[in-house]
User: Fold DUF4158 domain-containing protein from Deinococcus ruber.
Amino acid sequence: MGFEFLSDEHLGQYGKYGGEPTAKQLQDYFLLDPKALKRIAELRHDYTRLGYALQFCTLKFLGTFLANPTAVPDNVTRTLAVQLRLPRTVPFERYLAREDTRSWHQAEIRKLLGFKDFDRVEVLHLMRVLYQHLLVTDERPIVLFDLLTQRLVQRQVILPGATVLAQIVVRVRERVTTRLYRQLAARLDAAQRAALEGLLVIPEGQRRSPLDVLRTAPTRQNAAGLLHALRRIDQLRALGIRDIQLDDLSQPRKGRRVEPQER
Assistant:
């Protein structure tokens, strides 16, 4: 399985604002505490104060900085401007022109908020969290990707590139799936194993294996389609694998569907 689950839209939203924050989010992430207000008051210019505040709250909210720190929703700018008692129109272009100042602010903000770099320790932590999560549930890769993103923000870790997290999702899902298949294989007797292996053998004169045929669900919603479905059920029951003990597996794992890109 590759990174197909990461759509262009999702990649475009990663580490960026996906719209205006809610009132609850504004309260949780965009209200400046006394320490931040004191530091910002020491800055000389209005555009520097607001630029600093935007970077400060953006890191808290997104877990990363923006290439353009002023590319934020209007309600974010308004919320911070009111707290800093600044006019609505601030010459942001002057803040954007001072790259060294922005970088210096970022380093200071990271230290003030206690954000850490993403390193091998965090990789191992995310892999452990995701592995335990997947033992009891089977969520879509994009849901797991968002779960890891939220976890890093909660742990105050600077977000890595999107493909780094996607690779962790793919690796852990493959590891858990392999573990599940091995558990199931160990519970088969010789006859059951032979029946399943026989599904992979293409009969002479045929182009498809029995497994491929069973994978094809009925497409017609009529009597012929119903008969096809019933025959398919009979073929599955004839494999003799209905009595395999699965009580120790979580319900989502029992009903796991293999996605096309995993076949």
User: Anything to note?
Assistant: Residues 257-263 have pLDDT under 50 and may be disordered. The CA atoms of residues 138 and 144 lie 9 Å apart. The first helix runs from residue 8 to 13. The chain has 14 helices and no strands.
